[in-house]
Amino acid sequence: MPPVSIAAFGRYLPAEVVETEPVDPAVDPLGANPLLRLPRTRHLVARGERAAAMIAEAARPMFAGLGVEPAGNVDLLITNVLLPDNFITGSGAEAAHLLGCDPESIIDLHNTGCAAFPYMLKIARSMIAAGEARTVLIANVQNTAGQLFAQPELSKKNSAATAGDGCGVAYLTADGPSPVLGVHTRSTPAFADDMDASTQDGRRYWEAGVGEVEITFTEERSAEIIDRGNRLIPDVVRELCGKLGVAVEEIDLLVTNQPNRMFLHKWRQALGLRPEQHLDTFDRFGNLYGSAVPITLATAAAEGKLPDGALVVMAGFAHAGDFAAAAAMRWRQS
């Protein structure tokens, strides 16, 4: 496969920052467990803030830093938006318009959830290898914290208290300083039914009725779903390393989706990595779902925490475990 490189990362974090109220252990004993502690701060999208605008806000500074104009330099745009503003057209065309570019192809993914970033890398590599594109912009948007989780009843739940909003982007070229070494994906369709959008009155999410729409998991399999999550990231990382012919011990930095501190702890423990080798922004930005990987990498690059020559592995698992993916790159300072 021809070399494909990540030229740069970018991020956008909404202006509103909320701080978590300290948890009283007498009221919530679990809150005293450091592995279950809520994030310190999170960003929330504003009312009416569109996903396409978030993509544009993340991408413009990245392109400026590269000295590249989006116009004429994006052959393929791939987006993954957790809560699309328009469920018919997606957000890609609107984002391209805001950036002033006219990609030959636009792909709006509405699956692979928290594992979307490695999956989008796989699609981008395939398109470049096939000669269908030379430059690719990929964008992950998490925008449920200030919208879906702002509903009165959902806002009281722990999932709302951990969710944060933001957008992460990456620019790929057919040649560049930071090659993508490989991508590995695992799909288990049988697990897809363990997560669904549900309502109190049993209606479909798009039907009129009473009660808020929320994402729920099969209650009787909750322990099994957690176990899947604990195993999936270490499994796909090991499988990727096996395909690349490198040892897990050679990983310099791991970046994953960040649902909570417990998962993060379990994953690096299983892989034998030190805390400083597992980059995360959970305490600053909360659960960013699929955008966690690119936002964390953009943050690390901006803060000088991506050493030149580092072997960086990116991984995530989606939904109730029906999809997981990992990718590796050799980071080079541009």
CATH class of the largest domain: Alpha Beta
Q: Tell me the span between the first and last alpha carbons.
A: 22 Å
Query: pLDDT under 50 segments (min length 5)?
Result: none
Overall shape: globular
Q: Output the radius of gyration.
A: 19 Å
Number of helices: 8
The portion of residues forming beta strands comes to 15-25%
The total beta strand count reads 14
The CATH architecture of the largest domain? 3-Layer(aba) Sandwich
Mean pLDDT: 92
Judged by helices, strands and strand pairing, the structural class is: alpha/beta
Spatial strand order of the main sheet? 1-7-6-4-5
CATH superfamily of the largest domain: Thiolase/Chalcone synthase
Number of domains: 2
Major β-sheet annotation:
5 strands, mixed
SSE order: EEEHEHEHEHEEEEHEHEHHEE
Q: What share of residues is helical?
A: 25-40%
Under CATH, the topology of the largest domain can be stated as: Peroxisomal Thiolase, Chain A, domain 1
